[in-house]
User: Which sequence fits this backbone?
């Protein structure tokens, strides 16, 4: 199937999942995960109306921005080192993977110097996988408060990545817990600071949307499997 046909199929499934949960389908946005994909694949997606793309690697993001020019909206969704903060602050609209104060501070400094406000989500580890990025749930309130008070940053919400399950339903408790955590945190944060939940990928985005995702990060179901 073409990229356009795949996008239409993904959007249909997203809309259906939102309706099953009694949600407005317009409350969920698709982040097309374009890591390792050539610019032509992104151009096909843009021709089909997709404008938000998610990149995992700083150098690849830089190359894609140069190749694609104006138009796409870039979200950085991968692990990020503080020494790469300036490039990401310059090129991305939103960073999904802020998991520690040092990184948040670096992004804030760079965004301020660039005269922009950078949207950020706090990546939370809820499955106890020590090898994965993400702050612990117990550390999340303090990090969120720090980000909300950092000039140059706008706290948007939370992100999580569950383990890879063969059965999407096994990820549901993790998605539900992120939603509950965001609701608890919202009471002590500025209005709008917990409006976004970035959760769900190709294998489980429908379950994530049923549990409250507002940003679904989908790559394989749009572009096909990487070689």
Assistant:
């Amino acid at each position: 199937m073409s990229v356009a046909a795949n996008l239409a199929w993904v959007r249909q499934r997203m809309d259906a999942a939102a309706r099953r949960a009694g949600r407005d389908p317009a409350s969920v946005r698709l982040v097309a995960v374009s890591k390792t994909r050539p610019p032509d694949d992104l151009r096909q997606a843009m021709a089909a109306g997709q404008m938000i793309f998610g990149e995992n690697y700083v150098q690849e993001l830089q190359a894609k921005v140069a190749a694609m020019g104006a138009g796409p909206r870039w979200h950085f969704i991968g692990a990020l080192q503080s020494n790469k903060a300036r490039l990401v602050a310059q090129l991305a609209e939103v960073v999904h993977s802020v998991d520690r104060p040092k990184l948040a501070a670096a992004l804030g400094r760079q965004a301020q110097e660039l005269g922009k406000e950078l949207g950020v989500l706090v990546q939370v580890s809820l499955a106890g996988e020590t090898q994965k990025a993400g702050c612990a749930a117990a550390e999340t309130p303090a990090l969120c408060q720090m980000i909300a008070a950092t000039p140059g940053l706008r706290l948007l919400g939370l992100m999580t990545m569950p383990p890879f399950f063969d059965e999407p339903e096994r990820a549901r408790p993790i998605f539900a817990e992120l939603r509950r955590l965001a609701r608890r945190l919202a009471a002590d944060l500025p209005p709008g600071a917990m409006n976004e939940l970035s959760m769900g990928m190709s294998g489980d985005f429908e379950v994530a949307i049923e549990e409250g995702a507002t940003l679904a990060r989908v790559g394989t179901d749009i572009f096909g499997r990487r070689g």
Notes: The mean pLDDT is 95. The CA atoms of residues 39 and 67 lie 7 Å apart.
